[in-house]
Design brief:
By secondary structure, the chain is of the alpha+beta class. The protein has 3 domains: 2-109, Rossmann fold, CATH 3.40.50; 117-133 and 193-288, D-amino Acid Aminotransferase, Chain A, domain 1 (2-Layer Sandwich); 138-190. The chain has 9 helices and 16 strands. It has helices spanning 10-21, 83-102, 112-118, 121-130, 144-154, 217-221, 239-252, 281-287, 291-301; strands at residues 2-4, 27-29, 39-45, 47-53, 58-60, 66-69, 107-109, 138-141, 158-161, 170-172, 186-190, 196-203, 206-214, 230-235, 256-263, 269-275. The protein has a 5-stranded antiparallel β-sheet, sandwiched between helices. The chain has a 4-stranded parallel β-sheet with strand order 2-1-6-7, with helices on one face. α2 (83-102) links the parallel β6 and β7. α1 crosses α9. The longest helix is centred in the N-terminal third of the chain and has 20 residues, at 83-102. The two termini are 18 Å apart.
């Protein structure tokens, strides 16, 4: 089994601990170790065969039945290279390493290319809308006039959130929209009144839904900004939502997903986003839900990825 993640990843540690206790061989490495500390040797025959070797252990690529693509870091190039050389070597390393390893016909949690596709918020929002998960009304623009027209159309509070970087959600006053909007693409959404939010973690066919109740003004806008004022409660997923989540997972080819929902005062679930590699270990710590066990069981089972 191959685990690709950084060296300080407590979530991966929990999964690996389960696998170790059950005697499942695990080769853990980080893409940041390539090419300085990790050697790849791949030969094309009936698929890719060869090894990954970190100097103390070696992995037979043809024996890999499952791979956990958790949170590996960027490829780290040797010191002393020119900037042009560093960019070229990094691009070659990314294409070669992920190209060979990503071609292994095993179960991926999740495959790097599936992870990349599902991480694009415009794609996931469109798919969620088509599948009936009812995301908020949304506009993506770098035109301040478009943003102002959208604010007028919704006629109520509006929020903005990051399309990629880890930036907190913020409530926007339409009067503050100025020409700085032109500097990049912005995502604007209508504000949805909420009873609470739900983080739904899906691992294979197992669904772990946790209500997140915010008890501060900051947490009510974005619970990630104030963990000290959150209360958690395991809950069940309405069957229609569960079926639509399964369809979205299938649409993007995901085996794992961390979904965020708003639950309105009327009890209606509205999709916000899915992170195909979202955090979950703090929820296991807070509530005892066995997410690490579910991921370990999934990896232990393995499969041929089609």
């Amino acid at each position: 089994m191959l685990v690709l993640t950084n060296r300080l990843d407590p979530a991966a540690d929990l999964v690996v601990e389960h696998l170790n206790r059950e005697g499942v061989p695990v080769f853990r490495c980080d893409t940041a170790e390539f090419p300085t500390e990790l050697a790849l040797s791949g030969t094309l025959a009936d698929g890719w065969a060869g090894t990954l070797d970190n100097g103390s252990r070696s992995l037979d690529l043809s024996a890999v039945r499952s791979a956990y693509f958790r949170r590996p870091e960027e490829f780290r190039m040797p010191d002393g290279m020119s900037e042009a050389g560093r960019r070229f070597a990094a691009a070659q390393s990314r294409a070669g390493f992920l190209g060979v390893v990503g071609a292994l016909p095993c179960l991926w949690v999740n495959h790097p290319s599936r992870d990349l596709d599902a991480n694009r918020k415009p794609w996931q929002l469109a798919a969620a809308r088509d599948l009936g998960l009812d995301p908020p009304r949304t506009v993506i623009t770098n035109d301040p006039d478009t943003a102002r027209r959208f604010a007028a159309e919704i006629g109520g509070p509006m929020i903005t959130k990051s399309l990629g970087a880890a930036v907190s959600t913020a409530v926007i006053d339409p009067d503050d929209l100025d020409n700085s909007v032109r500097l990049c693409a912005h995502l604007f959404q209508e504000w949805i009144d909420k009873r609470h939010e739900v983080r739904l973690t899906v691992a294979g066919h197992q669904y772990f839904a946790i209500e997140i109740h915010a008890h501060s003004d900051a947490a009510r806008v974005d619970w990630r900004t104030d963990y000290a004022n959150l209360i958690y409660k395991p809950t069940t997923v309405p069957e229609p939502v569960r079926n639509r989540v399964a369809a979205l997972m299938n649409h993007f080819g995901l085996v794992f997903g961390a979904f965020d929902f708003i639950v309105t005062p009327e009890g209606y679930w509205r999709f916000l986003e899915v992170n195909p590699n979202g955090q979950w270990s703090w929820l296991e710590h807070e509530t005892g839900v066995p997410i690490s066990r579910a991921i370990a069981d999934l990896l232990k089972e393995g499969a041929t990825h089609d």
